[in-house]
Amino acid sequence: MSATADGQRLFVGGRWTDPDGGHYEVVDPATEETVGWAPEASREQVRAACAAARQALDGWSRTPAAERAAVLGRAADIIRGQLGAYADLARAETGATTGTARAMQVGVAVARFRRYATVEPAEWAIPPQINEAGPMGRAGVMGALAVRQPVGVVACITSYNNPWANPAGKVAPALAMGNTVVVKPAPQDPLSVYRMAAALEAAGAPAGVVNVVSGQDVGVGEAVVASPDVDMVSFTGSTAVGQRIAEVCGRDMKRQLMELGGKGAAVVFEDADVGSAVAGIGTTFSFYSGQICTAPTRVLVQRGLYDRLVEQLASYAGRLKVGDPADPGTVVGPLITAEHRARVESYVELGRKEGATVVTGGERPALERGFYVPPTLLADCTNDMRVAREEIFGPVVSVVPFDDEEEGIALANDSDFGLIDYVWSGDVARAFRVARRLRAGGVGINTVGRNMEAPFGGFKKSGVGRDVGSYALHAYSEVQAIVWPG
């Protein structure tokens, strides 16, 4: 069984295994009560998980793609059948609202497993080349084929803000391409990831193809990354941790896929639809209490619209209900831990000291329990303030004025990050012109919506590589060229 009365077990080599390090408490950030007990793996158990993935690689990589896809499809059905229970667990572990847990966490995980249950061609022809006679041989026609091959054993190190969609976005395409995986979930909310592993086991994933090891000790993640059995690391999390992982990967030339921090700029021109901009920015920076890397947390507003937008955005944010995520009316739930709440609050205080004006929010809500921070709007900011430059990862937005298009672009690009930016303008030609000049992996024009087949990833310190849709199949594969004489 995956869990006992004493706590969750690890999943190593197809077996549910008692952890050497015992268990630690998983806390509901809304109630501060115990959700369950997560396993603390030892370094030896991490190495065993990586070895199990290595042993299973040959058989799984040679399994026909249609059979691998069928496992993913069955897993999607199993997860969908338990959507209510799994969403309840996700809500309790993360503090996400019920709607977010159902639709954006478990629901997106189901969609991602189904997406990669569709077999796509893994090879494509290269136009033949006519070679003249020379030192390399006689004249002739050379045919070529490009083939996607699995990378090998993939370490999937996932973020706490979405313990369903984030792991599914790594595990599903990795398995579809014939890789095996070792998943190291975030320590704050790993229990959902073990449910995902159980679904894959029930769906017929062979022993060792999927392994899950967790722990609060940083040594667990370090052991996964350093394992000689690991060929690739797929990481979602902070830039600082990503940099340390990249150093280890670089020593052994391990492949990397890094989805790191963000400080998204929303460039709002005077001719923008103000209602659309306010709704887009307001819903996104408050969604999951701002604990998302794609949030437009730097709002750059052309000066003629500045006062009006600040007023309307403050009004919008002030109407968002903060409280129990199980309440259907709640929009903003808690932050993940008390420590993270303290960090976010310290940034608000820093903003005050830097000269920003707290227009709305900024004070801890009068709730008896839970790690809450209300949506907070900081006006009168400049782009050199720390609150405008550093990722806060909470429901806090800094608003900065600009005069003309060139200044707006310069301010947006004056950042260490470059994940997702946004442009609002009634002039579509200008919006596209500006979008092309923004140094970000993605740009939303008059929308905060996403196309789930579009490549996702960042420029600069926001990451390395792209995934989602077919791009994930490329990310979790090596391309091999096969050449022959025609």
TrEMBL record:
<dbReference type="InterPro" id="IPR016161">
    <property type="entry name" value="Ald_DH/histidinol_DH"/>
</dbReference>
<dbReference type="InterPro" id="IPR016162">
    <property type="entry name" value="Ald_DH_N"/>
</dbReference>
<protein>
    <submittedName>
        <fullName>Aldehyde dehydrogenase</fullName>
    </submittedName>
</protein>
<dbReference type="Pfam" id="PF00171">
    <property type="entry name" value="Aldedh"/>
</dbReference>
<keyword id="KW-0560">Oxidoreductase</keyword>
<dbReference type="InterPro" id="IPR016163">
    <property type="entry name" value="Ald_DH_C"/>
</dbReference>
<feature type="domain" description="Aldehyde dehydrogenase">
    <location>
        <begin position="16"/>
        <end position="482"/>
    </location>
</feature>
<comment type="similarity">
    <text>Belongs to the aldehyde dehydrogenase family.</text>
</comment>
<dbReference type="GO" id="GO:0016620">
    <property type="term" value="F:oxidoreductase activity, acting on the aldehyde or oxo group of donors, NAD or NADP as acceptor"/>
</dbReference>
<dbReference type="InterPro" id="IPR015590">
    <property type="entry name" value="Aldehyde_DH_dom"/>
</dbReference>
